[in-house]
Design a protein that fits this description.
Elements (H helix, E strand, L loop, with lengths): L1 H12 L9 E4 L4 H13 L5 E7 L6 H15 L3 E5 L12 H20 L3 E3 L4 H13 L13 E4 L2 E4 L7 H11 L15 H16 L3 H29 L4 E2 H5 L3 H13 L7 H11 L4 E5 L3 E6 L2 E6 L7 E3 L3 E3 L5 E8 L9 E2 L4 E4 L6 E4 L2 E4 H7 L4 H4 L4 E3 L4 E4 L3 E2 L10 E8 L2
Parallel strand pairs: 1-2, 1-4, 2-3, 4-6
Antiparallel strand pairs: 5-6, 7-10, 8-9, 9-10, 11-15, 12-13, 13-21, 14-21, 15-18, 16-17, 18-19, 19-20
Helix pairs in contact: 2-6, 5-7, 5-8, 8-10, 10-11
Length: 433
């Protein structure tokens, strides 16, 4: 059958099973993953395989899909591990429901691999998924690395992630399941145009296939060709970093083509587990054209240029927030923060904060806003206007209540709640011990 030949060739050409000491099959119950499971049951009967299935708790059909996967695994003698997730309760800040579900899935796959002592995890991405991913990245303005699409094989820490079906069209997986008598489920949400990937699948790909009926194969070839070039660029970048492990010589970097400069900078941050966006890469390249300067990314990473040397570092984490319940607190830097109860007068009422405890003591976070008599501004912008150096801005102490910032070191109170004359309030002072 076409699928069996394609999968066997992909496993061989990509070296997917090299060094494999146990394999976790990520099986959702759809035709792609059930086809992958059937292939391993038929062609790798003695392979150390375990199935991992996630019940996301999002659709009523999930119960039936779990039962189907469990029953099939029992029939072919393959162990099955199931996670019952509560995706909507586990969404983290900045995540969509879709991205939270993906994070939970992959965390589970890695945990099963660790429990089983398995080195490899296989997902059932197909050529259709590759085509849609390349188009999605293209629409988002991705560079060469993004247009490489889904890698057939990738190291993720101690786990190797493989995609044995990456060269198989989805139609082959459905045909294979039917031919082998393998049950599968069709997820109705794949037809919903609510999701961007589905809109690409149903509204973008069909008219493009009228121009080129071999669109999937064409985009998969493009991704494969770009991947070879990207691998060569990354190898050169890592060789440069290995030759200069501590600091990067700016003059040698400037002598390289712009694309190679960008790849080296991305690789340097990648070693700190930071992925530079296109805009951040442009900022880093712009700094390289100067004689000195500093750029900070996400308030966690710093790129510094000075004395013809470029330094990449991860910033020390900010101190954890803590509740202030007493009128005097010893700060992490040894100084003392003192709250003194005073009565507001016409002269001092804008220098006092409301008489309210507990308060939270912390450093600046994104989204902080301060109000002065001149108006309301983002704290970051206000501190910049005061010409407080960047390194000092991030170390300033802040007091906030459950709603907003109420006081900032070197600035004073935020006047969202200005005191009236005669009201009681606190003055805030930081002194040396």
């Amino acid at each position: 059958m076409p699928l069996e030949k394609t999968v066997a060739a992909t496993l061989r050409e990509e070296g997917m099973e090299e060094g494999c000491n146990g394999l976790i099959l990520a099986v959702s119950g759809g035709p792609d993953s059930m086809a992958m499971l059937t292939y391993y049951a038929v062609h790798r009967p003695d392979y150390p395989v375990t199935v991992a299935h996630v019940h996301h708790g999002l659709r009523p059909e999930s119960d039936g899909e779990e039962t189907m996967v469990r029953d099939f695994c029992n029939a072919v003698g393959i162990p099955c591990r199931v996670l019952h997730a509560h995706v909507r309760q586990e969404i983290e800040r900045g995540e969509t429901e879709e991205s939270a579900a993906r994070r939970i899935r992959y965390d589970f796959f890695r945990s099963v691999a660790a429990d089983q002592g398995a080195t490899h995890v296989a997902t059932a991405h197909t050529a259709d998924d590759q085509c849609e991913t390349v188009l999605l990245h293209l629409l988002h303005g991705a560079g060469p690395k993004g247009l490489c699409g889904i890698p057939p094989k990738r190291n993720e820490g101690s786990t190797i992630l493989i995609r044995p079906l990456i060269n198989c069209p989805k139609s082959d997986t459905i045909e294979y399941c039917k031919a082998m008598g393998t049950p599968f489920a069709l997820d109705k949400t794949n037809d919903s145009l609510q999701y961007t990937r589905n809109r690409i699948r149903h509204t973008v790909v069909p008219p493009m296939e009228q121009i080129n009926p071999s669109l999937r194969q064409a985009l998969c070839r493009t991704a494969a060709a770009l991947r070879l070039q990207q691998e060569a660029m990354e190898a050169r970048a890592n060789a440069f970093l290995n030759d200069h492990p501590s600091v990067l010589p700016a003059d040698q970097l400037r002598a390289l083509p712009k694309g190679e400069q960008a790849e080296i900078l991305r690789a340097a941050f990648s070693r700190l587990e930071k992925t530079l966006s296109f805009e951040q890469t442009e900022q880093a390249l712009a700094l390289l054209e100067k004689s000195t300067g500093t750029v900070e990314f996400d308030r966690k990473y710093t790129l510094h240029l000075g004395q013809n040397q470029l330094t990449v570092r991860e910033n020390a984490p900010p101190p954890p927030p803590r509740l202030i319940t007493d009128l005097q607190t010893v700060l992490d830097d040894g100084r003392i923060l003192t709250l003194t109860e005073m009565v507001a007068t016409p002269e001092n009422r804008y220098r006092l904060i409301p008489l309210r405890l507990p308060l939270t003591l912390r450093t600046r976070i994104d989204g902080d806003v301060i109000k002065t008599r001149a108006g309301t501004k983002p704290l970051k912008k206000y501190l910049t206007e005061l010409q407080i150096p960047k390194a000092e801005r991030d170390a300033l102490w802040i007091l906030s209540d459950e709603h907003r910032l109420v006081w900032c070191e070197r600035v004073g109170p935020s006047t969202h709640e200005p005191l009236s004359v005669g009201d009681a309030g606190y003055s805030v002072e930081i002194t040396e011990a």
